[in-house]
Design brief:
alpha/beta, 2 domains, Rossmann fold, single chain, 6-stranded parallel beta sheet
């Protein structure tokens, strides 16, 4: 692609962010659809996030993905928030408002995970057991909102800070969502049909954990939102229990596709995006 003065700029912001696969994904879609744009990764010093955001808006950076640890701050700094952002208090997708010289905030994390489940484990809605979500951070709250919108199944949430988890449960559906602490994980896993790790445990092989998934349904789906490494201790445990298991690479493709749609008005091929990411990881 020829870069000129009229090339639109998009970016992912995080700390750290150089490991991000989003530039590979988004630039492949940009090239496929013929848009005159470029997507890059920009590290931001945490203390300077809001200043950086305003500077990027002033420089007409058209769209941003936001990753750890800035999702909640991005929501607060936005000109406008979508209903999902107002609900979960976190944003991972910002779109430039040139008139206001700021960004409108959306959150595509949860719906990106739903899109991946529909693509790689399309029977997840039909399974009988409850859903278990580990964590209640920004991504986890978006996932809970999406799950509650797409399924009537009981949802069980494990989180160290139960008060924080209970707040989102009360906002969504307190009759559907039950909150407890880590000590009750074995009980929550009993008869579960879908278990989602939405914590950072296991990211880059740090603080790995490996629950015993034998109490889950035999056809249960074990999902890790982490994709680095692709096979975490969490997923190894699922594999040893002969449970279906998926890493977070498909969620990355799903949330990225929805962000692309916000920016360009076109929904790209999510499965094609996943293949692009897989090929990049083995290259």
């Amino acid at each position: 692609m020829k870069i000129t003065g009229s090339t639109e700029l998009y970016a992912v912001l995080g700390s750290p962010v150089r490991h991000s696969m989003s530039p590979v994904l988004q630039n492949a879609w940009i090239q496929e659809h013929g848009f005159k744009a470029l997507y890059v990764a920009l590290p931001v010093v945490p203390d300077n996030f809001e200043v950086a955001l305003q500077g990027l808006a002033s420089s007409d950076v058209c769209g941003l993905n936001i990753t750890t640890p800035f999702k909640e701050r991005a929501a607060k700094a936005a000109l406008r928030q979508s209903d999902r952002v107002r609900l979960v208090g976190a944003a991972n997708c910002l779109t430039l408002d040139r008139t206001g010289r700021g960004y409108d905030a959306n959150n595509t994390d949860g719906d990106g995970l739903i899109a991946d489940l529909d693509a790689r484990a399309s029977d997840w809605r039909e399974l009988d057991g409850a859903i278990v979500v580990l964590g209640a951070g920004g991504a986890a709250r978006s996932i809970l909102a999406a799950l509650s919108a797409h399924s009537q199944k009981p949802i069980r949430v494990i989180n160290r800070d139960q008060e924080r988890a209970q707040q989102i449960a009360d906002q969504l559906n307190p009759e559907q969502i039950q909150v407890s602490s880590w000590q009750y994980l074995p009980q929550f896993l009993t008869g579960a049909s879908l278990v989602i790790n939405a914590t950072s445990q296991g990211l880059n092989n740090q603080s790995p954990f490996s629950p015993d998934f034998s109490p889950t349904l035999p056809d249960a789906i074990i999902y890790d939102t982490i994709y680095s490494p692709r096979m975490t201790a969490y997923l190894e445990s699922a594999k040893s229990s002969n449970r279906r298991h998926f890493d977070g690479l498909g969620m990355l493709a799903g949330q990225g596709a929805l962000a692309f749609h916000y920016w360009f008005g076109v929904l790209p091929d999510i499965e094609g995006g996943l293949k692009t990411l897989e090929e990049a990881l083995v290259a």
